[in-house]
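Hey Z.,

So I finally got round to the fe (ii) ion thing we talked about over coffee. Here's the setup:
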Amino acid sequence: MDMNLYDRIPNNVNLSEDKKLQRALEKWLPNYLDWWREMGPDGFQEKDVWLRTAVDVGSEGWAHFDYVKMPEYRWGIFLEPPKREAIVGFGDNYGRPAYQEVPGEFRNSLRRIIVTQGDTEPASVEQQRQLGKTCPSLYDMRNLFQVNVEEGRHLWAMVYLLHGYFGRDGRDEADALLERRSGNPDKPRILEAFNQPCDDWLNFFAFTMFTDRDGKYQLSALAESGFEPLARTCQFMLTEEAHHMFVGDTGLGRVVRRTAQLMKESDVRKLGGIPLDIIQKYINFWFSYSLDLFGGEISSNSADFFAAGLKGRYKEQEQYAEHAAANEVFTMQVVEDNQLKAREVPMRNALNEVLRGEYVKDCEKGLARWNKVLNEEGLTERLYLPNPRFHRHVGEYAGHFFDLQGNLITREEFEKHKSEWLPTMEDREYVRSLMHPVTEIGKIANWIAPPAAGIKGKPFDFEYVRL
Ligand SMILES: [Fe+2]
Ligand SMILES: [Fe+2]
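And the result:
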């Protein structure tokens, strides 16, 4: 595939050969830049940031690192190269040639999937736009901006699909992606987790750990889609997404380490650290909101999408020998007559829940890494994930109340314990009170430990952002 890095819109999809599409995207470009200047990182647009830019899609050397001013970042459209003889990998059309165009009867629902995914990308940039001002170190500031510009590129990837495959409606949807605003009651972003404020660094790390990780699973399920342009787009997005989760996972791990060190000295609060119980509450909050992003436990949409070969399971080809999932059943707990009861559901209707289960397993590995830190520091306290039924707003458990272990409780009991389980206003204010910028090269805020290594072989005390 040719990389056209010096086109107005860098791409590897031969954009210059499709004049109509190229013109449409070039018309969208200035609107995107207006949005970036208005809603992107506040206060740092003219600074040189040491960023990676995608310049290839190969597994080696796909990125170039250098100082860039964010509005000059080369956002591009990069798809994985096509496979020869790509097939529909699951569902009722298993084994047929992959779709190169949108199958007519799925046009609306596929557009919805792409718009919903696309909407999360600018939303997270908006949620995080003030964080640069309170960064704990230049290293962290650089990572924040790296995540932000790549979410911008993911928006480009989805907008390419909308413009390229959905005609007029696609163009309208692409415009609307720049019009909604995270947390704005009049024109909110589509998914609730993306309207929640992300205004301190503990939120940011929890968000990139738990919410970006939902993205990994959604993208993975689409990366094997029978609609080939979507599959190839998502495959490349996953390459970048890995770094976002690294930022969250190691970021929280560093907070945990610092907290543990301070716990051994004396009262964490007095020493200006973040108490372990506040970290736990942030985990409870972002984990539960991120679980909602997978959709209802029982879903006819998921069945239709799987049947059509559009959205598969996690690692469908690698993990499963049988790709129809037509006669299997899945047993899950549902609330009936105010009690938890087991119900058997056709497997295809339970695929949101199956994907959510994969996600939970992945999150547990993160918890194990943080608990290893606590162990290394000689503490016996441990962090944990709440039961997936806890604090849900979507699906079977929404409207019911559960404790952290997943026991059904009354609303009154929930309200009574809420301040022990979820961040309170005071917790948030306390965390915010610690957020003072540290921007001296090689220095770090008191509430977080330095990283084990810098970025791309650079030391921690490298000038990641020139202020
Ligand atoms: Fe993304
Ligand atoms: Fe991301």
